[in-house]
Write a structure and sequence with these properties.
The chain is mainly alpha-helical and 78 residues long. The protein has one domain: Type 1 dockerin domain, CATH 1.10.1330.10. It is built from two helices and no strands. The protein has helices at residues 31-42, 63-73. Helix 1 packs antiparallel against helix 2. The protein is globular. It starts with 30 loop residues before the first helix and ends in a 5-residue tail after the last helix. The model has no long low-confidence stretch (mean pLDDT 83).
Length: 78
């Protein structure tokens, strides 16, 4: 298994409608999604991620998605 670095990016292809920010494809946005996104650049326990978690259209999952998820969980996003 390749160890990932913080500078690695992840290309995603969105193929169907999914909830943006829902990294684990559970149907809701919660802190589990934030933890998954935090693990990606650290290379820790890399898991299959919901390709629709991308919120900014760059087809990558990273800091913008993490900020969105945390704001959503805090009630700052609809």
């Amino acid at each position: 298994m390749k160890r990932l670095s913080a500078s690695d990016s992840f290309d995603l292809t969105v193929r169907e409608f999914v909830l943006p920010g829902d990294a684990d494809n559970s149907g809701e946005i919660d802190l589990t999604d934030a933890i998954i996104v935090l693990k990606l650049p650290a290379g820790i326990d890399f898991v299959d991620i919901n390709v629709g978690a991308d919120i900014d259209g760059y087809e990558q999952v990273g800091h913008p998605e993490l900020i969105y998820i945390l704001q959503y969980c805090a009630g700052l996003r609809p």
